[in-house]
Each structure stands twice: as C-alpha cells, then as structure tokens.
Amino acid sequence: MTSPNILVHRHTRSSRIAIAVALLLVFAIPTMPFWASSGHIRLIVELSCLIAIAQMWNLLAGYGGMVSVGQQAFIGAGGYSLFVLSTYGGLNPFLAVPLAMILPALLAAPSYLLLRKLDGPYFAIGTWVLAEVFRLVTGNLSVVNAGSGMTLRAMGQFTAHQREIGLTILCALLLLVTVGGTFLMLRSRLGLAMTAMRDDPVSAASQGVNVGRMCFGIFVVAAMGTGLAGAIYYMAQLRISPSSGFDPYWSSICIFIVMVGGIGRLEGPIIGALLYFFATRLFGHYGASYMIVLGVLTLIIALFSPAGLWGLFSRVRDWPWFPVGHKLGYLASRELRS
Question: Residues 228-283: pLDDT tens digits?
C-alpha cells in the first residue's frame, strides 16, 4: 500500500523555471525585428532551424532507434516545396511554408516501407542512398532549374522589415511545433509507448505496443518537422540548389549535436545545438582543423559519456528542464497536517 505522504509529480522547480524561460525566449523571437539587427535575426533563424532539425533526429534515433544519415533528403524536399509552391503556384511564401511539409511526408512513407526490413548500419546506409537518389533526381529536373537551383523571387514583394517579421514568427512556431510538440507527445500515452520501445522493443511489443506502426509514425513525423525547418532555413537564404539542400553535411550536424548534447532526452539537442552554433561562430575560421576537433569531441563523448553533456550534468544535479516521466516525492509536514 502506498504511504499517504508519498507525492507523485512530474514538474520540479528547475523544470518550471526552464519552461517559463523557454516560452519567454520563444515569444520574444517575433519581437526581434523591432529592436535587433538583421545580422542577429539571421543568427536566430539559423539556430532555431538547427534545434528543430536536431530534435527531429533525436526523435528518430533516440526514441525510434532508427539512426539516419539521410535526413538531408527531407531538408531539401521541404526547401524545394516552398520554392515551387511560391514560384509556380503563386502562393504567398509565408503561407506556403506549412504546405512544404506535405512532400517530405509523401517521400517518407514509401521510403520507410523500403527501409523497414533493414537494421542498424544497413538502415543508415539505406537512408543515405535514398537521399542521394533524391539529390540526383532533383539535379536533373528542368522544372527546378536542375543543378543551377532556384531563387525565391516571390520574396521581392516584401520589404526587408516585413521579411524579418515573417521569418521570426515562423521560427517561433517552428520551435513550438518541434520542441514543444515533442514534449507534449512524450508526456502522453503515446510517449510512454515510445519510451518503452526505446528501452526494449521486444518487451514493448509483448505489452501490446505496435512497434512497426510506431516506427513508421516517428519516421514520417521526423521527416515533416525536418522539412518544415528546411523550408524556413532556405526561405531566409532566398536560394536553394541540390548541392546545398541535399548536402550530407546536414546529417553530420545532426549526429554531432545530438550525440554531444545527449541522445534520447529533449534537453540534449538544445545543448548540442547551442554548443555547435557558438563553436562554429568562434572557431569556424580554422577550417578543416576545426572540423577534426568536432569529430574527435563526438568520439570522446560517445566512448566515455554515451548520454552526452546532459547526461554528465544530470549526474551532478538532478535539474530536469523538460521532464516527461514521473517522480516520487514527499509531502511537507504542514501539508500533512492540513
């Protein structure tokens, strides 16, 4: 029998503070065009897209157990969808951004059906092969100017200030959808099933979790979130080409951010994205040597701290930012007396 002074809760003081600060920062992003410089806005757009893409890769690998090195397929698909809808469909680019998730979803569904029989490294190689196929096909389509790429000329109808307002609003929505949506999903019954599948797929299946259907859903959702981030990123760039939209470097960024920050936790991709973002700004001018250092750092973290930097921090202080499980505590004596 459970003792009456036991309290089951989810939030802690650290999580309440973290969620409040996160919401404050997200809702402050759309105000930036009125007080921040254009350079700072571009940096925030890039950081927001990095966090979103990494969070989707974390959902895919950290909870679905599907390590992909081909997520650039959906980044390019989302970016090209926006450009095509705006250029040939005549849609307002800002309104076309949500529609840019449709093509990644349509590509992800049959892709998973092709890859679902593969496991481990074979699955990873399969995702890379599909991404290369999408890049080669796009590079030979005259409707999207083949290898020359496309320019988002529809943005010319807006002033620079209007573009900044639209981009910052989209970035705030992107973070709410990818990070906030993942947080809410993991706190639901669906999230409980995902966590069980992550810890032991066989045991989860024996308890009634449809592992195949769950993996399919995660793969499609991750593709949609990644495509949304790709559309916003290339909207800010005003130009996209097969070599940039389907660049394998995107997957390298995802792996570094999630592995260093902490896989299988919501906090990990945020920490990893911040580390990568500021490291790139501070040491990016060192070129190849800088990339070698990032690779060695990823290897060291993978060998000595598989849980990433967030795992190291959690060992020292149990201060969760976005808790998705339950914690046991005790009622204070004054609460017992009442």
Answer: 999 999 999 999 999 999 999 999 899 889 989 998 888 999 999 999 998 888 87
pTM of the complete model beyond 0.85: yes
Q: Which single residue is written with the structure tokens 């909870």?
A: 63
Q: What is the pLDDT of residue 34?
A: 95
The beta-strand segments (E) located in the chain are 6-9, 150-151, 239-240, 327-330
Q: How far apart are CA 45 and CA 226, in angstroms?
A: 14
Share in percent of the chain as helix, strand, coil (round to 5): 75, 5, 20
Burial of 197 (0-12, 13-18, 19+ CB in 10 A): buried
In the block, residue with structure tokens 């992800």: 108
Q: Which residue ranges make up each domain of the chain?
A: 8-247
Report the C-alpha dihedral over residues 122, 72, 139, 137, rounded to 10 degrees.
40
- CA torsion sign for 13, 16, 19, 24 is negative
In this structure, the strands spanning 327-330 and 6-9 are: antiparallel
One-letter amino acid identity for 96?
A
d(CA 182, CA 194): 11
Q: Is 309 left (phi over 0), alpha (psi -120 to 50) or beta?
A: alpha
Q: Which residues of 297-330 are buried (b: 16+ CB within 10 A; e: fewer)?
A: ebeebeeebebbbbbeebeeeeebbbbbeeeeee
Q: What is the mean pLDDT of residues 325-334?
A: 55
Q: For residues 167 and 42, what is the distance between their CA atoms, to the nearest angstrom? A: 9
Could you tell me if 80 and 138 are in contact, meaning their C-beta atoms sit under 8 angstroms apart? yes
How many other C-beta atoms lie within 10 A of the C-beta of residue 99?
Answer: 15
Buried b (16+ CB within 10 A) or exposed e, 200-220: ebeebeeeebebeebbbebbb
- Name the β-bridge partners of 6: 330
